[in-house]
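name: query_chain
kind: protein
chains: 1
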Amino acid sequence: MENLIQAWYVFLIAISHQQDVHYVLMLIPLVLFFELPLYFVNWMGVIRYLVKDAVAAPFSPPYYPRVTCAITCYAEGKAVQNTVISLLEQVYPGHIEIIAMVDGVQRNMATYQALKALYPLISNYPQRSLVIIPKIQRGGRVSSLNAGLSRAQGEIFLALDGDTSFDNQMVDHAVAHFRNPNVVAVTGTMRVRNARNTIMTRLQSLEYMLTMQVGKLGFAKLNVINNVPGAFGVFRKSFIQQIGGWNTGTAEDLDLTMRIKKYHMRYPKLQIEFEPGAVSHTDVPESFRGFLKQRLRWDGDLWYIYSNKHKSGISAAMMGWGNFIFLLWYGILFQIVMPFAIVIYTIYMAIKLPLHVFLLSMILVYLFYLCLILVQFVFYLLAISDRKREDCNAFLVLPIYPLLQFVARIWSAYAILNQIFNKGHLDSSMAPLWVLKKGKQ
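structure:
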């Protein structure tokens, strides 16, 4: 303990004698004035939800429209049966139509046969039906979604991944929001199914708790939700048909969310909601290499969507001031600018400062983010989590999480550069290259 105190004393003396002391503090304005307020705004949204939920009188008139669950299938094999069965076993009393689109069926006969094996089970589930669409040529995720949309009979359309399963109250909780005619899209909680497999899956499970639960709930209550994930999106079918379904290319979920937001000025009451009780379970990459490969596509797609497909539509005139300010703040500053600021800041500090001063300053940054994450995680456990005992396991990896965040942000800068110079979106697994070229991507 005495040695640690001496180290910090040396650190303070060292920076006090540095003419370039402002280099140590140069990131503080960016954090204090741009990043911290983002957390506070998000937490205020969650508190607003909790207060409204506690005070508002429940009103639940019968509302059970026909629902279509469109499952995009590609190389899941027998795992797709878990997805379908989790939908068959929903407690929702209305009709659930399940449409499974098998992309490139000739190469995915295992998935196709696994789906066909479920036909005898359908008669055991009243108000359930299964339709299998075998697509001979692989056309990608967007092609599958639009094929499902064209066949859908339901009023509510769920776009789901073939490797994602659901709690049995998911449909009931998600569909309830569409009683409000202004709601056009809903998403829900995404939990990591393979969380206990490796350290990487545990870290990603914590990330999903903080970003896809706390994050989306808070921003949804301010009606500025950033994205409806492709693995779990619930939509009013008539509205999706009105805007033309999904567009060809990668990052189809963010693209669709951006297109929905462009209707805010024409329909100011339009809403995208988040439902904590609609729970899905998905697998995440188990290795560090797999994690980086996934984020290379995700983060590169951000630049592709903002600078290519929607560069002319990012305006308050189309999106409304709330969504416009939030997009500049979170989408552009936080997701695009911050990774480069952190890379430049770190390199510059490493060059300009003595090694011990640099290392101790990095420890300060680490401790700051550790405290911030700890507060957010405790907030999540107390206010949102419905599996508190299970979620408490994340405390074991919480000290490592700020390091993963740091690496992820550096990698994000690389992913954006890869998109700018190498058109990384053309190397997407979401669609074959011929589809991307046909769509002039």
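note: The first helix runs from residue 2 to 16.
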